[in-house]
Structures are given as C-alpha cells and as structure tokens.
Amino acid sequence: MTLFHGYDVPFSGYLDEQDFKRDLGVMEKELGTRFLTDERVDDRLRDRTDIVIAHGSPERLLSDYVEDQHVDLTVIGSHGRGALFDALIGSTAKTLVETLEGDLLIVHYLPKE
Fold first, then answer.
1. 8-45 as b/e, with b when 16 or more CB fall inside 10 Å?
2. pTM
3. If you count DSSP H runs as helices and E runs as strands, how many of each does the chain have, helices first?
C-alpha cells in the first residue's frame, strides 16, 4: 500500500522557492511519519505502507503516479465543501474522478459535532 500526498500551496511563487520547498517537504514527511506511527495503525499495515510525498498539482501528480505504477484502486478523502466553493476554487475530487485511470473510492470527511 502507498500513502500518496501531493500538495501545492497557492501563491507559492511569492516565497523563496528553494527554502520553501525544502522546509515544507520536511514538514510533510514528518506528518506522514507521525501518521504511520500512531498507535491506531496496525503494525502489519505500517510495515506494508510506503509514503510518497510530492510538491505540485495533486491532480496531476496522483494521475501520473496511478498511471506509472499501474494502480488498481485509488482511495481519496474529500472535504466536500459545497457547490459554491467548488465553482470558485475547483474540486480536486471531481477532477480526479474525471482523470484517474482505474477504480476510485472517495471517502467523504464528516467532522464530529
């Protein structure tokens, strides 16, 4: 299993590109490691999981990864912010539905109230 995290930061062109990419990459790797070392993650699953972290357009990065690695099933999380947000900003999940090869499972995030 692979835990893939593609991230992009709006207006990152205004930041010092090299320092920004390096610092953010380190932070993202630490978050991935912390996620896998959480006590709720089974040891057998942890041992079978790789982490891939890449900076850029998540839609493009994941589409390329799925195609290059011949992925059978892609599972993504979605915040589902609403139609207005999607119309103005765009929906990563919608784009992935339209572009990814293979099967796609979308898990909708519902915060506890």
1. eeeeeeeeeeeeeeeebeeebeeebeeeeeeeeeeeee
2. 0.71
3. 5, 4
